Amino acid sequence: MGNMSTLRTKKLLRKHSTSLVLGILVLVVFVDPVAAQSGPPADFEGIMTNLYDTVLLVLKYAGLVALAFGAIVWFTARKNSDRAENGMWLMIGGMSMTIFYFGVTIFVAVLEWIATP
């Protein structure tokens, strides 16, 4: 059983080896100069704060939009089972994103509370 997955992995690596090498090379070429030009730690903290705020906004609003759109699709599906299934999965995805948003917010608040003297 393990031998089959190893063979499948080797086949995928051979098939996509050029893409992988090119992707790693592009990553090194573009990231290396940026890393050398990084500023003081305050700049890095600002970047991380902006990234955190962006992730929270995407989780919150994309989750709420998916939840609402999924509910609309699900409740207007009538006898179309594919449409009802798509609406249900959109609702589940939106609900998961919204719950994850609150979970991340609570987790970070607890970490900040622990770290504050």
Automatic annotation (TrEMBL):
Q: What does the UniProt keyword field contain?
A: Membrane, Transmembrane, Transmembrane helix
Q: Which residues cross the membrane?
A: 55-77, 89-115
Originating species: Halosegnis longus
Q: What is this protein called?
A: TrbC/VIRB2 family protein
